[in-house]
């Protein structure tokens, strides 16, 4: 457990007045407030430190205790006990009131105070929950779920563990890489009786197939031999869910793209509907020509020029 | 609109200890949509997260209405760009 210099956190020196603390808190909170820095974990962490420092330095009793023991905080309880025994102490350190509205109570649960704070001031030392404080929704949780592309071809159920709790959810077919879904009421507990926060799950989809995906459409490059491209014919290609035969027009050029309707990926939350599969032909030219082949090709070349 | 999905503004004022004029101002600035059903004012429950965010910014950080408007605009823009960035990154995967 590391000593936290709350003055340093708020960029203040020890002589700072209450007004200085308030001003510093406001200045830093405006910079690092989670509502202004969505999805930024480092800002959130910094804001929690700022909030904790403000909680201590804006409260005269807590500040006094912090100033008094500072780096010797580990022995604070012993000192307090000794004081009490000597009859020099009139009251305990708990039960700090205040009901400061400036403290961030929205997405901020009890676990967000450092061990240092807990040890120095105890669990009941928070200044929230007094008087007619407004109710706030609990902290929103963010989680990332990594899946293979093949996993999201069909809707399926999956059990997740979020903050020690198991949660069974249905992952709809066609969910996209980077897409976030909201699970209402599975976030942190609300403040002053407010509703629970929500759980946001962001999907990271790893493509473990040879197809490239663009939303509900799939793309694939197919090698086409020179003769079939030139004279036409039929080839068998792989689609996501099986093989299909594809007629090839004579004189097909390299880079030609054909669309196979409905052979793509499932459309998100549109059951039974699929995107398309786009095939791009890559014509392969024969190699290691025999002398006879070379002779014939030269003859063909002459015919064209 | 389903009444069950609406929260009366009086209830919000009571729960969050805010003045009714504050909600009206948010509505006037286009920050929160207030719907009127049979002469009673409501906010849709889907807008609660946004409402709470504005409340926190206003009360915790002392940001006035003009500031809230600017912040909302910038956060919306940031969101749009994030989505655009994601779509482009996914598209870029086609050429990698």
From TrEMBL, chain A:
InterPro entries: DnaJ_C, DnaJ_domain, DnaJ_domain_CS, HSP40/DnaJ_pept-bd, J_dom_sf. Keywords: Chaperone, Metal-binding, Repeat, Zinc, Zinc-finger. The keyword Cell division does not apply. GO terms for biological process: protein refolding. CDD domains: DnaJ (cd06257), DnaJ_C (cd10747). Coiled coil: none annotated. Transmembrane segments: none annotated. One of its GO terms (cellular component) is cytoplasm. GO terms for molecular function: unfolded protein binding; zinc ion binding. The keyword Zinc-finger applies. Residues 89-100 have a biased composition (Gly residues). Residues 79-104 are annotated as: Disordered. It comes from the Bacteria. Residues 5-70 form the J domain. PROSITE patterns: DNAJ_1, DNAJ_2. Pfam families: DnaJ, DnaJ_C. This is J domain-containing protein. It comes from Gillisia hiemivivida. The lineage of its organism: Bacteria, Pseudomonadati, Bacteroidota, Flavobacteriia, Flavobacteriales.
TrEMBL record, chain B:
This is MerR family transcriptional regulator. It comes from Gillisia hiemivivida.
């Amino acid at each position: 457990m590391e000593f936290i210099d709350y003055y340093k956190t708020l960029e203040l020196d020890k002589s700072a007045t209450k007004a200085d603390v308030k001003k510093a808190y406001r200045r830093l909170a405006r910079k690092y407030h989670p509502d202004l820095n969505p999805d930024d974990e480092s800002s959130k962490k910094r804001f929690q430190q700022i909030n904790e420092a403000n909680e201590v330095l804006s409260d005269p009793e807590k500040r006094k205790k912090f100033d008094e023991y500072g780096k010797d905080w580990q022995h604070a309880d012993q000192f307090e006990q000794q004081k009490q025994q000597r009859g020099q102490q009139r009251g305990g350190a708990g039960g700090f009131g205040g009901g400061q509205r400036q403290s961030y109570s929205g997405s901020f649960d009890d676990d967000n105070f450092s061990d240092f704070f807990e040890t120095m001031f105890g669990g009941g030392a928070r200044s929230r929950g007094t008087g007619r404080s407004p109710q706030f929704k609990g902290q929103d949780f963010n989680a990332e779920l990594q899946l293979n592309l093949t996993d999201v071809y069909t809707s399926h159920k999956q059990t997740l563990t979020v903050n020690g709790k198991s949660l069974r959810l249905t992952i709809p077919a066609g969910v996209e890489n980077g897409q976030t879904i909201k699970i209402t009421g599975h976030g942190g507990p609300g403040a002053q009786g407010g509703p629970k926060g929500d759980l946001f799950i962001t999907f990271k989809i790893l493509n473990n197939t040879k197809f490239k995906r663009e939303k509900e459409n799939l793309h694939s490059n197919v090698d086409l031999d020179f003769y079939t491209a030139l004279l036409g014919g039929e080839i068998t290609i792989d689609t996501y869910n099986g093989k299909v035969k594809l007629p090839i027009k004579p004189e097909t050029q390299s880079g030609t793209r054909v669309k196979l309707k409905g052979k793509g990926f499932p459309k998100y939350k549109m059951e039974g509907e699929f995107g398309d599969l786009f095939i791009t032909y890559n014509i392969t030219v024969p190699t290691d020509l025999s002398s006879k082949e070379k002779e014939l090709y030269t003859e063909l070349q002459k015919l064209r020029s | 609109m389903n009444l069950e999905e609406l929260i009366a503004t009086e209830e919000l004022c009571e729960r969050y200890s805010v003045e009714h004029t504050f909600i009206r101002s948010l509505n006037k600035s286009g920050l929160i949509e207030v719907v009127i059903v049979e002469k009673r004012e409501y906010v849709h429950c889907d807008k609660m997260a946004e409402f709470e965010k504005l409340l926190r910014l206003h009360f915790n950080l002392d940001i006035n209405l003009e500031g809230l408007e600017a912040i909302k605009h910038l956060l919306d823009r940031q969101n749009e760009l994030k989505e655009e960035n994601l779509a482009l990154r996914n598209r870029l995967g086609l050429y990698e």
